Amino acid sequence: MTVVLRSPQEFKQWRKKQSGSVGFVPTMGALHSGHEQLLKTARAENNIVVLSIFVNPTQFNDPKDFEKYPITWDADLKMAQNNKVDAIFYPHAPDMYPDNYRYKVTENEYSKTLDGAHRPGHFDGVLSVVMKLFNVVSPTKAYFGEKDFQQMRLIQGMVESFFMNLEIVPVATVRESDGLAKSSRNVRLTQEQRALAPAIYKAITTSKTADEAAQALSAQGFKVDYVTDIDNRRYVAAFLGEVRLIDNVQI
Q: Is 245 helix (H, G, I), strand (E, B) or coil?
């Protein structure tokens, strides 16, 4: 039986009654098989599994992107139940931001590069909401996909810097059969864009340099934000129409 809890206070009351290890998967919903892998890993490693679904307004630097983010509650609930999730934390924005976002968490170096350079304020919103979620859920372990590698590294750094009592567990990127990284935003691609999207994975895995990969994508009609190699990992962000896709691979 999966229980759905709407407010931080309600969740904390439920949490007090639980014992054993708690595995936590924070999401913005529109769940796909990448999220399901996080849930399966959490289920295998913990006594209790908690899923959060919250489309966090503070991490969207583009209001239109926020408005268009897919909401698929019925399918999300079914996936949670199929994977034996014990509780879903499904809060309202005013309950998560009673201070109207006066207080925030900021990282001043790594968050200003890559996605942070192209999405001002994005990682402030991510780190702030994740710290709030950790404080509400009190997990033993929290699970993050490596597709959002920069995000995962920043959250690991926050946990270490603030002496937070939990472990961040990375889970490998889940891909479609054609190589496209699973993402909630993929559903917004047109049929033609979806056919072209796997070129991102092909470019970053077959090109000798980041510049070569960027040129290959631009030539195919992508609007490239960046392709960059840092610490033996190649990162990419590129638009197909209005949809921004990101990926990364070890090199």
A: strand
Q: What is the CB neighbour count within 10 angstroms for residue 33?
A: 12
Q: How far apart are CA 111 and CA 126, in angstroms?
A: 10
CB atoms within 10 A of CB 239: 15
Using a cut of 0.90, tell me whether the model's pTM lies above it. yes
Q: For the residues 176-198, what does the mean pLDDT come to?
A: 97
Q: What is the DSSP letter of 174?
A: P
Catalytic position from the list 32, 35, 92, 122: 35
DSSP secondary structure letters along 125-180 = HHHHHHHHHHHHH--SEEEEEGGGHHHHHHHHHHHHHTT-S-EEEEEPPPB-TTSP
Which residue has 């908690």 as its token pair?
50
Digit-coded pLDDT (tens) for 125-140: 999 999 999 999 999 9
Among 219, 223, 216, 220, which residue's Cα sits nearest to residue 237? 223
Give catalytic status of residue 92 as yes or no.
Answer: no
Radius of gyration (C-alpha) of the chain in whole angstroms? 18
Quote the percentage of the chain above a pLDDT of 90: 98
Residue type, 40: K
Describe the strand order of the beta sheet including 243-250 as a list of residue ranges: 223-230, 233-240, 243-250
Confidence bin at 42 (pLDDT 50/70/90): very high
- When pLDDT is cut at 50, 70 and 90, the band that residue 18 belongs to is very high
Averaged pLDDT, 89-101: 98
246 φ, ψ (degrees, to nearest 5): -125, 155
Domains of the chain (ranges; CATH) run 3-171 (3.40.50.620), 184-250 (3.30.1300.10)
